[in-house]
Amino acid sequence: MSRRIVVKIGSSSLTSEEGGLSRERVRFFADELSSLLKSGTQVLLVTSGAVAAGFRRIGYAARPQQVHQKQAAAAVGQALLMEAYQEAFGVHGLAVAQILLTRPDFGSRTRSQYAERTIEELLKQGVVPIINENDTVATDELKFSENDTLSALVANLAKADALYILTDIEGLYTADPRVDPGARRIERIDVISEELYRIAGGAGSSVGTGGMRSKIEAARIAMGGGVATFIGRVSEPGQLADAVDGRGRGTYFTTSLHSLPARKKWIGFLAVPQGKIFVDAGAEEALLHGGKSLLPAGITGAEGEFHPGDVVEVANAEGRTLGRGVTHYSAWQTVAAAGLPSDEATRRAGVSRIEVIHRDDWVTTHVKKEAQLHE
Ligand SMILES: Nc1ncnc2c1ncn2[C@@H]1O[C@H](COP(=O)(O)OP(=O)(O)O)[C@@H](O)[C@H]1O
Ligand SMILES: N[C@@H](CCC(=O)OP(=O)(O)O)C(=O)O
């Protein structure tokens, strides 16, 4: 079977000095991706650049800051962005397709299945799927606000072998190199830890939005679904092939996980959680290390408006997220049963099942405090 990869190109890699879309950069990436395609690799492209491509055409002097202006600029720019890709891939005899997605599209099983099927068909026909956020309808809560998370969800959805997040810096450094000139590059990461989020700063350029933090979050989501991830820079011909061959200028995130079954992937990464359940230390141990179900006795509280069948997040006393699961209790039933022994809990909540979250419906997403870094 041929290798399938997702390549994400950030705004910082696609813009000229003045902040507009650089057609030359678009051509460069189309050339790099076409070489991979010709060697038999299946490629999905997640690209930013709509705002960059559109803000001048709409009449703004500089990249806008207000959300509705960004949305308007993206609406103008998305067509221009696609036109640029169409032309650049056309030189190689390749057709492109536009796919616009928002967060809830992944949370809905029907919508994500349609997206998955469309992508499969496009790849089968040798078309390059080009994906961006649907900025017009992406309100704050529904927004990725950067395309890093979007690319990780796409990689999970399309069951990709690897995700390549291309940016303006050669990977993750021990500190933000803009602030600390002594920062060293981390070559390989096997486990995402809280420490990584600490050393990662925000966006480096005026056009990028996520910075390193959102790229690490993307790596965590992709790795959780069994997708190896690379974060780094590709600026010269041949460097994308080098990155795919493991010789890239950047940081490699490895994963020993195999692709999760579709349902677990949905629970762990694709669904939008409808609330949060807080648990005590005993329940934390049972969920993380005991392979057990979550029972009312270990619950200390809940927030949000959730119903049986919804995905909820589970957090410990410090508020750290441990994982996600499908709840069999509604929010009020969870609160009514919290801390009680089984008989009394089911009676108070008016339910017959004792498990609030069954272990088969549980996915651990807990992030360790520290892990080894390979510099
Ligand atoms: N620890 C770190 N290592 C590397 N880069 C970092 C780190 N912390 C913050 N950054 C910044 O993240 C930037 C890349 O993110 P961003 O500007 O959002 O790019 P993109 O548009 O490609 O998504 C880099 O230019 C860099 O300045
Ligand atoms: N979706 C928008 C913004 C996305 C964005 O800036 O993302 P990123 O370059 O990943 O920080 C666009 O295409 O301009």
Automatic annotation (TrEMBL):
Pathway note: Amino-acid biosynthesis; L-proline biosynthesis; L-glutamate 5-semialdehyde from L-glutamate: step 1/2
SUPFAM superfamilies cross-referenced by the UniProt entry: Carbamate kinase-like, PUA domain-like
Assigned EC number: 2.7.2.11
Pfam families named in the record: AA_kinase, PUA
Sequence ranges assigned to domain PUA in this UniProt record: 275-358
Keyword field contains ATP-binding: yes
Family: Belongs to the glutamate 5-kinase family.
Annotated protein name in UniProt: Glutamate 5-kinase
Lineage: Bacteria, Bacillati, Bacillota, Bacilli, Bacillales
Gene expressing this chain: proB
